[in-house]
Amino acid sequence: MHKTAITQNIEVGGKTLSIETGKLAKQADGSVVIRLGDTVILSTAVTLNEAREGQHFFPLTVDYRERFSAKGAFPGGFFKREGRPTDKETLTSRLIDRTIRPLFPDGFRNEVQVLNFVLSADEEIDGDVIAGVGSSAALALSGSPFDGPTAHVRVGRVNGEMILFPTVSERAESDIDLIVAGKADAIVMVEGEMDEISEDDMVAALEFAHEGIKAIVAGINELVETYVKERGEITPKTYETVAPDADLVEMVYGKIKSDVDAHLRKEYSKETFYGGISDIKKALLTDLFGEGDDAKDEIDGGYSKGDVKEAFKEAESRVMREMILDEGLRLDGRSTTDIREIWTEIDYLPRVHGSAVFTRGETQALVMATLGTGRDVQAVDQLFDQEDKRFYLHYNFPPFSVGEARFLRGPGRREIGHGMLAERALAKMMPGEEEFPYTVRIISDVLESNGSSSMATVCGGSMALMAAGVPLKKPVAGIAMGLIADGDKIAILSDILGTEDHLGDMDFKLCGTEDGITACQMDIKIDGLSMDTMKEALEQAKAGRQHILGEMAKTIGEAREEISPTAPRLIQVVIDQDFIGAIIGPGGKIIKGIQADTGAQINIDERDGKGFVTVAAPNMDAAHAAVDIIRGIVSQPEVGETYMGTVKNLLPFGAIMEIMPGKEAMLHVSEMAHGYVNDPADECQIGDKFEVQLIEVRDGGKLRVSRKPFLPEPTEEEKAAMAKRREERSSRDGGGRGRGGRDGGRGRRRD
């Protein structure tokens, strides 16, 4: 029993990535514990020795799981156990799956399971790319027929300097957040978001990433070599591949080439294309096997109908690929750089805050934007990510969009992945909270699909946001690029069809504005992609993206000046945090009163030493009324300023007036009128409103106001009468002695 681990330390990007094996999970075919900082992940790989009978696809399962115990915490909610995978876990699982899947042999049918568990979480070091490295290392030790190793790296750029494995804090300052996976000689997978970077910057980031990938791949190879020396040879898995017989494919190719070629040159639609291919296949089967009672079960060579059908797929693909590579002609008659016809429409739905229909060829998305308040934010509480999301996008792919009928369930991995790509593409162009305090949700329903539905979501989402009046910094568009490669022959395709995605070698989605890239995602089916091919694809995508933006601008090119009339009205007021308590009031009395009086909803957030008060109301009048009250509470009254006051209470020596929300002042009887006031009730009643002037702010913040400046000046006769009455009171009362003087109780000074 081995109690010590074999450890390989890899220096990369100024950090130490440690991979150990041989100590934990030894019954797995391959297992490693990988560390970066205090983040520790267990990665395992198991490959079954035989394929299940009747298996017609490669059953690869990749899972990544985070547990709150990794940071010494409990899961939230009633059940103190992790439940279904979070979106972050799903996206990370896809990230790894998309990297390793194309590196297994064609026709491999043995089940493979790759699992990753975060055991310890350094909140500054995310586990996603580390799990990608761990998965590759576990496969390399497992004996599985995996054409690796591969490595994942994250690239950031802070103040113009590229960084490998940036921390969470550095990512917040970075204008690039790019995950790249590859082998020593090629890039395999790319995904990320950026702040409108150029194509040259993108290439530089990929080249920088690849240097880190090479170092990690070399380290994994050294780990495997050390393991073999110390623990013995790794036993390769036995397997058989399921692939059409080469001779059968050649025979079928010879029989169908002319028919398929002729069919491909007809006017294209998805329905007629697949219908015609189906007719050609039926004719081939009839020719080879006959029909009716004379039909054969096998043909010469012992091939069944199932064998011929599999050979037909490969032969059909070969004809299509040859036409593209040799003639530059695609299935729908376009050249390699042409974009399908685009038509768009906004305001399709009357009560939705913003809506757009984006149609490109036979792909169509109906996209809706909804504006909400701070109460609608999406709270995210995960190991490496705690935030309140003010912008989020949900992508739906109903079965009717491809003419199918199946149960509607929750979003799958594909829908979550496509939605996140579109969200990242648009998020960089969303206005800041101080400029636009709304929470924004986008829903994209794909109504028709024949390639690039996620990119239609980006385009439709951009238009729906502008139609809703969201001050998007710039419009955003997306395009899916494809690749057909055969040896030295390469064709890069713009705006790929679903069939081109299926039969091709790459799906490279790029999103951005007229000035730069905001998000990308690349999946490939071949061993890797050279940097030269990557550069060519980026430049071709730029031209396509700019064309699409031009088509979108024909319908809407910038945000409307006003938000939708059906959307709530929001105003945000930034205050000193010391005033938050004054707005809330004891037991919430003040804030509840404002909401009751105006019909507005008020939400207060405290951050960076400030209070952010967001007022939401059904109309702007109500919003402004609430804001005026709030500004009154936080404003400081100034001596000499005029205020509209309301009498709140009467006292023997004056009246208490509210001159601003939450601020009261004393109107002494001596300041109620120019002459003598015997009883304050003779001058005003509770609820009366009139203008007063602030004349004094005493120690402790007590306020005194006067009404005199707004009353008519007395005539000479009135002044003489008032003077006479003062003399009479003075002689009668002995100069004011014995009744409290000028300021005590009902003092003597009345004029």
From TrEMBL:
**Residues annotated as domain S1 motif:** 640-708
- Location, primary (coarse class): cytoplasm
Read off the SMART domains from this record: KH, S1
Q: Which residues form a coiled coil?
A: none
Q: Name one Pfam family in it.
A: S1
Which residues fall in a compositionally biased region of kind Basic and acidic residues?
A: 717-751
InterPro entries from the UniProt entry: ExoRNase_PH_dom1 (IPR001247), ExoRNase_PH_dom2 (IPR015847), ExoRNase_PH_dom2_sf (IPR036345), KH_dom (IPR004087), KH_dom_type_1 (IPR004088), KH_dom_type_1_sf (IPR036612), NA-bd_OB-fold (IPR012340), PNPase (IPR012162)
Q: List the catalysed reactions.
A: RNA(n+1) + phosphate = RNA(n) + a ribonucleoside 5'-diphosphate
Enzyme class name: transferase
This protein's source sits in the domain of life called: Bacteria
Localization per record = Cytoplasm
User: Keywords of this protein's UniProt record, alphabetized?
Assistant: Cytoplasm, Magnesium, Metal-binding, Nucleotidyltransferase, RNA-binding, Transferase
UniProt region (Disordered), positions on chain:
706-751
Sites where the protein binds Mg(2+): D501, D507
Q: Which GO terms describe its biological process?
A: mRNA catabolic process; RNA processing
Tell me a GO cellular component: cytosol
Gene Ontology MF terms in the entry: 3'-5'-RNA exonuclease activity; magnesium ion binding; polyribonucleotide nucleotidyltransferase activity; RNA binding
- Function, as annotated: Involved in mRNA degradation. Catalyzes the phosphorolysis of single-stranded polyribonucleotides processively in the 3'- to 5'-direction.
Q: Which family does it belong to?
A: Belongs to the polyribonucleotide nucleotidyltransferase family.
Q: Which HAMAP family match?
A: PNPase (MF_01595)
* Name listed for the protein in its UniProt record: Polyribonucleotide nucleotidyltransferase
**Organism expressing this protein natively:** Rubricoccus marinus
